[in-house]
Amino acid sequence: MNAKPLSARHAAVDLLDQVLGQGRLMSELMHGAAWAAMVPGERAAAQRLAGDVLRALERLDRILKPYLKKDPPLRVRNVLRLAAYELCTGGAAHGVVNEAVTIVGRSGRTAGMKGLVNAVLRKVAASGPGQWAILRVPRLPDWLRGPLVEAWGREAVAAMEAAHFAGAPLDLSAKGDPAVVASAVGGDLLPTGSVRLHDPGQVTALPGYDAGDWWVQDAAAALPVRLLGDVSGQRVLDMCAAPGGKTLQLAAAGARVTALDLSEPRLERVAENLARTGLTAEIVAGDALTHASEYDAILLDAPCSATGTIRRHPDLPHARTGDGIAELIDLQAAMLDHALGLLSPGGRLVFCTCSLLPDEGEAQVDAALARHPGLRVLPPAADWIEPGWRSSEGGLRLRPDFWSARGGMDGFYMALLQSVG
Ligand SMILES: C[S@@+](CC[C@H](N)C(=O)[O-])C[C@H]1O[C@@H](n2cnc3c(N)ncnc32)[C@H](O)[C@@H]1O
């Protein structure tokens, strides 16, 4: 007999265990038989619940602390965190507490703590909602908070933390006229041309999904391609292309795109996205550091810490520790150097990263200017650029606390480069 599919809460606790216990990212985890057996609505609910708990982790631990004399095993703590989140945000106590006790009871290693879970949650049901309303916005873990405070100051980081806690709306990029997409899906047309939905429901059920009229892409992530200007008919290399949001933009703008990426599985997503939208690009599996050809323009969306995407990936600050960023910085510099050698005379290159760390953005461009005497930053010219976005070396710095009244944007850095002489 087949086992009963996991409930959303049970699957959410499994996700929390692996993110917080093993440093895994949620995107790596939502595969396999147990996930496939779940009803789609339950899968989405599990992902949402785990994400909400990770956003609120510090606040939940503060609420639970007075009721825990000893530190419980991680799984029990995660069951308590999830239930506390639901109790503090309007969940019905009976159902929430019962399922928490059931989940703990399923494993011989935790079954002995059913009574504790029940008792703690009864107390949280009474006092938690009042505390929830007054506790501070959860802070980022120290490995990230420290460098961000150094780069942007305490006030800016507090505003970023508020943006991370608030989560992100859904942004779409249109294949054709964004005003038509905005009206079809009932979204807002942003000044930069993206379409924003605050309460989208199921993405694949939105009008125009099957027809490939749009794709999901954060408003900030849609800007690097726009810095390249008119690419119609030009040979453009999307040097780190997968899953392909920027490839789609380039193809929709009429470029002859080569979509290069090291990861074949990730390139399958590029192929699927091209097929759904009816756009074309040459897909190449290969290493950006050895790729050889010549291009009129190159988009280098380099691998990075992804610290700009935390609004959408609240698991990242908890699953990561900051290890490996120095290697990424070296890789970004090597990719940039190699990319400059692939440009035809007068060719343009956009370097960008979805990072909040200046070492992966402003400092990377400063260092490239020092290494390449003929290299220039071309200050981007577009009516949608706000003065506060410009950085001193000539690039654009976007942060999650920008556009707060509109619902924020991902953190991103981008600069338009050209070699002269
Ligand atoms: C930030 S993601 C790219 C996102 C993509 N531009 C988009 O908009 O959908 C970075 C990509 O770099 C790829 N990558 C990492 N090392 C690489 C290498 N040496 N050569 C080519 N691609 C690489 C990764 O597989 C990953 O897909």
Automatic annotation (TrEMBL):
Query: Which GO molecular function entries does the Swiss-Prot or TrEMBL record give?
Result: RNA binding; RNA methyltransferase activity
Write out the residues that bind S-adenosyl-L-methionine.
Answer: C240, A241, A242, P243, G244, G245, K246, D261, D301
Q: Which residues form the active site?
A: C354 (nucleophile)
Domain SAM-dependent MTase RsmB/NOP-type: start-end pairs? 132-420
InterPro entries per the UniProt record, alphabetical: MeTrfase_RsmB-F_NOP2_cat, MeTrfase_RsmB-F_NOP2_dom, NusB-like_sf, NusB_RsmB_TIM44, RCMT, SAM-dependent_MTases_sf
Q: Please give the biological process terms from Gene Ontology that the record holds.
A: regulation of DNA-templated transcription; RNA methylation
In its keyword annotation, does this UniProt entry include Coiled coil? no
Asked whether the UniProt record includes Methyltransferase among its keywords, one would answer yes
Q: Which UniProt keywords apply?
A: Methyltransferase, RNA-binding, S-adenosyl-L-methionine, Transferase
Under Pfam families, the record lists:
Methyltr_RsmB-F (PF01189), NusB (PF01029)
Give the UniProt family note.
Belongs to the class I-like SAM-binding methyltransferase superfamily. RsmB/NOP family.
PANTHER family the record matches: NOL1_NOP2_SUN FAMILY PROTEIN _ ANTITERMINATION NUSB DOMAIN-CONTAINING PROTEIN, NOP2 YEAST -RELATED NOL1/NOP2/FMU SUN DOMAIN-CONTAINING
The protein depicted here goes by the name: Methyltransferase domain-containing protein
